[in-house]
Design a protein that fits this description.
Blueprint: H1 13-16, H2 24-31, H3 48-61, H4 77-87, H5 106-111, E1 127-130, E2 140-143, H6 145-149, H7 151-160, E3 173-179, E4 187-191, E5 197-203, H8 214-222, E6 226-229, H9 231-239, E7 248-251, H10 258-268, E8 272-278, E9 282-288, E10 291-294, E11 299-304, E12 318-324, E13 332-346, E14 349-356, E15 362-364, E16 370-372, H11 373-380, E17 387-392, E18 398-403, H12 409-419, E19 426-431, E20 443-446
Parallel strand pairs: 3-5, 3-6, 6-7, 7-8, 17-20, 18-19
Antiparallel strand pairs: 1-2, 4-5, 8-9, 9-10, 10-14, 11-12, 12-13, 13-14, 15-16, 17-18
């Protein structure tokens, strides 16, 4: 995997879609006159046995959700820990007491992906996905067809809270993943779990299309029920002014500000849901008025001290640590996510409060008054920023770069001056969003101390 992470094995359509005999809709998606220049072939590889496992996963964790209470652990945790210790090489000789079990990191998975594979995993099922490395070195993530396809029941679990359902039919496009990047894999596929409905991944970059207006025409023709993507991609899509009627937009990967959310909802006339997910274990929760509502009873969530293997008391803020999942190629025990929040349980449901996808960063005014980045996030969230970077130099000068097609640098300076009590020097730049962005996730950084 270190030599090349590009696709290495070409499967036939029969291998990609064992349960789907009629591929006419797939061919229509791929051969349409306005179709993009797809560069990859994808399929869910679900046969009858694998599909039954996905449906069983939904039945177990979707219909009735049982989490855990304060001071308790989930009922499945003991058995899960025993299975990991027995079958996963990385966890051997680390003790059997969960309370004293050490945390693991992204670097552990990056260096030793093979050691996290259960001895009971079927190597013929192996699939590999890798992250772009925007938050660090590239990470290979191993999984199988069942754990991959289980993202759909997870999405349905979120949609249920909004009284939204996905229509399952071989003649409809269920989901389109929208990208606005220089380069990414793109494909048209079908989902056996959704009874043959179409799944698209497209890139709005004009170089991926034969004619300038093909992206708009193609999306309008197939009118996906659900649009997924990040705020950058959605704002690039908004620039095309497509006539679409999605049931919802699912935003992930980057922080979704209230301003961007409001602008998207006003245009598309549907809810825009802010998802929190990790490549390592897929969807975890979605933003609500109380915090990010957790949707996965098969994941146990804890809050740890950032620097020491110490679990923090209930309600304290620290690093989110995850245990669980159904992936035999990457079972997680106390995996440090690199994200920070506090955990609250309301009416039997866990919430991630003030979730920030970066270490908390302290900024300083010229007169040494401390400013927490969470306060900055709360103020900037009112603007339609699709993303931003904010850095404080040694002389305390603030360097700010934002991505938006309507916010001005003057607005940013005004808000930051208000937060910093006009006791700061600010250089702000706003970069326009296009259909071929090369933008990392929003981040804070400082040449001073970090909390």
């Amino acid at each position: 995997m270190d030599v090349s992470s590009d696709p290495q094995i070409a499967l036939t359509d029969a291998e990609r879609f064992p349960l789907l005999d009629d591929l006419s809709f797939l061919n229509a998606l791929k051969q349409d006159a306005c179709a993009p220049k797809f560069n990859f072939k994808s399929g869910d590889r679900l046969d009858a046995v694998r599909l039954s496992k996905v449906n069983a996963y939904k039945a177990q964790y979707y219909n009735e959700k049982v989490f855990w209470n304060e001071g308790e652990t989930p009922i499945w945790l003991t058995g899960y820990l025993e299975w990991c210790l027995r079958t996963v090489p990385f966890y051997r000789n680390k003790g059997s007491d969960f309370d004293s079990f050490p945390t693991i990191s992204r670097e552990d998975i990056r260096k030793y992906p093979y050691l996290f594979v259960s001895n009971e995993a079927d190597l013929k099922e192996l699939l590999v996905y890798y992250t772009s490395g925007s938050t660090g070195p590239k990470l290979d993530v191993l999984f199988d067809a069942v754990s991959q396809a289980s993202w759909l029941p997870q999405i349905e679990s979120v949609l249920k809270d909004f009284d939204i359902s996905i229509t399952k039919s071989k003649d409809t496009t269920a989901i389109a993943l929208i990208c606005a990047q220089e380069k990414t894999l793109t494909y048209a596929s079908l989902s056996a779990y959704l009874e043959g409905a179409g799944i698209l991944k497209i890139n709005l970059n004009p170089s991926e299309w034969n004619h300038p207006d093909d992206a708009k025409k193609y999306l309008e023709k197939y009118n996906p029920q659900i649009l997924t993507g990040d705020p950058i991609a959605f704002m690039a899509l908004l620039d095309l002014k497509p006539k679409l009627t999605p049931k919802t937009l699912l935003s992930s990967a980057m922080k979704l500000t209230k301003g961007t959310k409001g602008k998207l909802e006003a245009y598309f006339k549907c809810p825009v849901i802010d998802l929190y997910s990790l490549t390592e274990c897929r969807n975890i929760g979605y933003a609500s008025e109380y915090g990010h509502k957790v949707i996965r009873p098969d994941l146990y969530l804890e809050i740890f001290d950032e620097h020491e293997d110490v679990q923090l008391p209930y309600g304290e803020r620290g690093e989110l640590v995850v245990t669980g999942g159904i992936n035999p190629f990457l079972p997680l025990i106390r995996y440090r996510t690199g994200d920070f929040c506090s955990l609250k349980i309301e009416n039997g449901v866990p919430y991630l409060v003030d979730l920030e996808a970066r270490n908390p960063v302290v900024f300083f005014t010229k007169s040494e008054v401390k400013i927490n980045n969470i306060d900055i996030s709360n103020r900037l969230s009112k603007l339609s920023l699709a993303g931003f970077k904010m850095h404080q130099e040694k002389d305390k000068r603030i360097q700010f770069t934002g991505y938006s097609n309507d916010v001005t640098s003057e607005e940013i300076i005004e808000i930051l001056n208000s937060i910093f009590k006009n006791d700061i020097d600010i250089v702000a730049e706003i970069q326009k969003i296009s259909q071929n962005n090369s933008i990392d996730k929003s981040q804070y950084s400082s040449e001073f101390s970090i909390l």
